[in-house]
Amino acid sequence: MLVLGIETSCDETGVALYDGERGLLAHALHSQIALHAEYGGVVPELASRDHVRKLLPLIHQVLDDAGVASGDIGGVAYTAGPGLIGALLVGSALGRSLAWSWGVPAVGVHHMEGHLLAPMLEAEPPAFPFIALLVSGGHTLLVRVAGVGRYQILGESLDDAAGEAFDKTAKLLGLPYPGGPELARLAEQGDPARFRFPRPMTDRPGLDFSFSGLKTFALNTVREHGGDPQGRADIARAFQDAVVDTLAIKCRRALEQTGVPRLVVAGGVGANRALRERLRQVTDKLGGAVYYPRPEFCTDNGAMIAYAGACRLAAGVHEAPVIQARARWSLAELEAV
Ligand code: KG4
Ligand code: ZN
After folding, report:
1. CA–CA gap between residue 109 and residue 18 (Å, rounded)
2. pLDDT value, residue 321
3. Is 267 in the pocket of ligand 1 (CB under 6 A)?
4. In which band, very low, low, confident or very high, does the pLDDT at 35 lie, cut at 50, 70 and 90?
5. What mean pLDDT, rounded, does the chain reach?
6. Quick check: 17 and 25 in contact, CB under 8 A?
7. Residue 119 confidence class, pLDDT cut points 50, 70, 90
C-alpha cells in the first residue's frame, strides 16, 4: 500500500510517501527554525500558521518527486500527538480530510512511535526485540520494543528531556535556538578536564533519568566561569559529557537487564556525535549493535510517520472519519498490532 505521511507536531513540516513493497519513494521537509529563531524558542501559534502555509505545497512536491498521482495513494498517516495541539490539528485535519476525499483509510500516528521505528527505513534495520533510547526535545525514554505497538517503557525522564536540557543550557551559554547542535559544536573546543558535572541518578538502580539538576549546575558554573569564550566551551564540553555519560550508563544497564543486544537510538539528540561514539563503545563491549536512523530522520520528519502509519494500516488499523488530536498521549496506551 502507498501511504502519504504527514508530520506537523512541532516546528518542522514533514511529508513523505512510503510504499509497503517499494519502500520510501519521496520525502520533503520544511524547517521553521528561521521563523522561531528571533524568539529563542518555538512560538506555538506561529508554528501552526506556518504548517498551514507549507503543508499542501509540500504534499504536491512529494507527489511530483515520486511521480505519483493522488489516485495511487492507498492510505494517509498523520501525527496525532503528542505535540503542540494547534500544530497537530493542521496535519490531522488535512490528512483526515484528504483521506476522506480520496476514499482511503487514515491513521493517526504517535510521534514517538514514528521516532522509534525510523531505523526500520534503513538498509539494515534492527530485528525485534530491541531497546530504544528515545531522546528528543520533549521526551527521554528507554523502551523495550517487541514489535510494532508492543512497547514496554523501562525508564523515562522525571523532569526535563535530554534535548530540553541541551536547549536550556545552550541558552545559558548565549547560543542561538535550537541550542542542542550549537552546544555540541561548542563542546568540541572545550577542555574535558576543566569541569566535572554530576551524572544524575546513575548511582542508584533503575532506568529513569533526571536532567533538570544539570541545567542548574550549568547555570552556577556559567555565572562563575562563563565570562570568556574558552570558559563557555569548557562548560559546554562538561555538560555534554555528563549527558552522554548518563545516557550511556542507563543504556548499558537496560541492555544488560533485558539481555537484548540491539539498541536503537532515535530522536533529535540521537544526531549528537559524542553520544553516537559512546553508545557504539557500549554495544561493542556487550557484543551487540546500535542502530540509528540516517541523520535527517533523527529529527522530526514525514518519513517516520509514513512508515509507522503504513505498518498500522497494513494491519487493518484505521480511524473513523473524525479529526482528533492529543497534546498529551502516553506510549503505554498503544495497542499491539
Ligand atoms: O526529535 P526532535 O527533532 O524534536 C522533538 O520531537 O523534540 O528533537 C529536537 C531536539 C532539540 O532539543 C535539539 O536541540 C536536539 O534534539 N538536538 C541535539 C542535536 N541535534 C538536535 N542535541 C544535541 N546534539 C545534537 N547534535
Ligand atoms: Zn520528535
Report:
1. 14
2. 87
3. yes
4. very high
5. 96
6. yes
7. very high
d(Cα 277, Cα 221) in Å, to the nearest integer?
Answer: 26
- Could you report the per-residue pLDDT of 318-329, keeping only the tens digit for each? 988 887 778 889
Per-residue cell: 161:
528531556
Which grid cell is 190? 572545550
- Counts for the chain of helices (H) and strands (E), in that order: 10, 10
Please name the helix (run of DSSP H) or strand (run of DSSP E) that holds residue 6, with its range, or none. strand 2-7
**Non-local CB neighbours of 141 within 8 Å, separated by 6+ positions:** 112, 132, 133, 134, 153, 155, 156, 157, 331
Closest ligand by atom to 267 CA:
1
**224-242: pLDDT as tens digits:** 999 999 999 999 999 999 9
Phi, psi for 312 (deg, rounded to 5)? -70, -45
Say if ligand 1 is within 6 A of residue 180 CB: yes
Asked whether the beta carbons of 145 and 131 are under 8 A apart, the reply is yes
Whether the CB of 136 sits within 6 Å of ligand 1: yes
Q: How far apart are CA 30 and CA 144, in angstroms?
A: 32
How far is CA 138 from each of CA 9, 147, 239, 281, 300, rounded to the nearest angstrom?
Answer: 11, 23, 18, 26, 12
What is the 111 CA–ligand 2 centroid distance (Å)?
6
Reported as a pLDDT band with limits 50, 70 and 90, residue 40 is: confident
Q: Report every protein residue that has its C-beta within 5 angstroms of ion ligand 2.
A: 136, 300
- Ligand 1 center–CA 162 separation, angstroms: 8
- Identify residue 143 by its one-letter amino acid code: V
Q: Which atom of ligand 1 is nearest to the CA of 164?
A: 12
pLDDT tens track for 129-141:
999 999 999 999 9
